[in-house]
Amino acid sequence: MADHHPFLYYWFAFLCIILGRYFLVAGGTHLLIHSVLKQFFVDREIKIDPPVWESIRSDIKLSLFSTVIFAFSAAFSIFKFDRGATLLYADLDKYGFWYLGLSFLGVLVLQDTYFYFIHRLFHHPLLFKWFHLGHHMSRQPTPWTSFAFDPAEAVFQALFLVAIVFTIPLHFATVIVIIMTMTIWSVLNHLGFPLFPTSGYFHWLGQWAIGPLHHSVHHRKYTKHYGLYFTFWDKLLGTDEPNYDSAKQTLRERVLHDNAIPPKPLQTSKSLRSGRLEV
């Protein structure tokens, strides 16, 4: 890059970008569900009560802290790129078009692996209160919950994205697509209700890709479903809900039934603080 801007310039720019992305994607999805598409869900007998605003305020507050941390990590990466210290590149011909797709899929697998193990670690009773409690404060997740991380957890989330730009050659376009995939996927997984049918093509897809129903189980049973994108690690390490694939319709009906019950205020019970709650 021709111009080398100071670190704070990058930090403020990314702060605005990440904050805008959060309110646009999470807020837009929330508005879409509870306003534009409300009748669509009513026609399909899917009960979606308005979430508790106290919970939403808590999620937004945590997301603001996360935004500050993510902006620091993004600014650090670009600051170092300016000085030739990262493996980021802008020339499409450097590795060819085929590498764009390969690097994208490779990073998704690595991120899913990293997320699974730190997520599971943060549910340990000794760590949960400090690293992951805020994300589970509301029983019913919403799009606003998607980036509601405790500051300590946000640091670990940010470290992955910093690490990959120093270890894997990535085109800027690939990084942008990875971040947008992570954002949209996370928002969809925190809808708080089943979005897709449990039969046909979606049944096959749901065996390997995590969706709203799969992640809703985690918000009810904290010892299950720790993955981010894929179900591989849950299946391999025994944290998949028993008979999840064959019981999807039953689970779907249970989640819909739970959503018909007015959401509870923020929970601060001992079972919640331990990270071992099962509902």
Description:
- α4 packs antiparallel against α6 and α4 (97-122) crosses α7 (172-189).
- A two-stranded parallel sheet has the order 1-2.
- The relative contact order is 0.15.
- The chain has helices spanning 7-36, 38-43, 53-82, 97-122, 125-131, 151-167, 172-189, 201-208, 212-218, 232-237, 248-259, 270-274; strands at residues 88-89, 170-171.
- 62% of the residues lie in helices and 1% in strands.
- It is built from twelve helices and two strands; from the N terminus they run αααβαααβαααααα.
- Residues 259-269 have low confidence and may be disordered.
- By secondary structure, it is mostly helical.
- The chain has one domain (7-274).
Short note summarizing the structure:
The chain has 279 residues and is mostly helical. It is 62% helix and 1% strand.
Element-by-element helix/strand order: HHHEHHHEHHHHHH
Rg, Å, rounded = 19 Å
Low-confidence runs of at least 5 consecutive residues: 259-269
Give the helix/strand class.
Answer: mainly alpha
**What is the end-to-end distance?**
53 Å
Task: Note the beta-strand portion.
Answer: under 5%
* Shape estimate: globular
